[in-house]
Write the structure tokens for this entry.
Amino acid sequence: MNGELVSVVIYTYNQEEYIEQAIKSVLAQQTTFKFHIYIFDDGSTDTTPIKLKLLKEQNNEFIDLHLSKDNVGQKENSIYVINDLKSKYIAVLDGDDFWSFNFKLEKQVKFLENDTIFNACFHDLSIQSEENVSLAQYSDKSKSFYKTYSQLNNYTEEVYSWQIVRRLIPPISAMLFKTECVQEAYKEILADKVDYKVSFGWVFCLLTIRNSKFKYFNETWGVYRDHKGGVTKYVDNDEFIKPVIFYLKKMLSDSFYKSMKSDIYAELAQHINYLLSNSKNMTLFRKRLQTIKIIYYRFLQGLYKAIEINRDL
């Protein structure tokens, strides 16, 4: 802890082509307050650690560097964030993304300082698709058909928890959070002992938005890189969906989210239906068929109850 108002957390793994631009885009931020950069390298096997050490030497007063010998995952790296960061706000930047507006932090902090009912705020990101994205294992997950994140998600000026349940996903590299809600979210994710893989950002937003809302700035202040080394490009669709289903089921008993059962069941039905339609194992097919029947039934029950409540109001 270095007495900063904002801690900028950068997670990286084998991003030698991109990490320097990511860090320099943070160092270029023009602010009226102090911020500090915390970099967590998750056991990179390329030249990323070498570049990080050099950047640390050149900018020692602004950077704390944490190098892991092993690839332990973001969950394990979050322990430091939980225990040691004392700043009022936390911004997160993936090591292959970068910020393109030098007053991004200034504007986001000013908003949260003046409007305390929000737990976080975020902005749009442009999507920069690399030529090599078609070589990825799951290149169908490429975002190359889109120019911005807002084309993938219909963001509203104020984002509510039910929208996150229905898979409206803010880009993590665009967000500024209140530190206390980030630390609470990490604690719950660590307690789950589940690898959420590419669903980590969605779960993280579900936890940080509880009892609050997010503010969206309809401005493009950063860049998301769509490339073959991205985490979404080597995770099988089944492995992507299973953690989503696990967490949706968990939300049914959550003290905050259980009031949104119709939304939860709708998402469960959609994701289980995907697994059902792509199943190659007949035993598994029959099991999923029975499950999806139950889910659809509960969804319709929840929807009916919601309609009745709204009618009474």
User: Anything to note?
Assistant: The chain has a mean pLDDT of 84. Strands lie at 6-12, 35-41, 63-67, 89-94, 98-99, 120-129, 158-159, 175-178, 214-226.
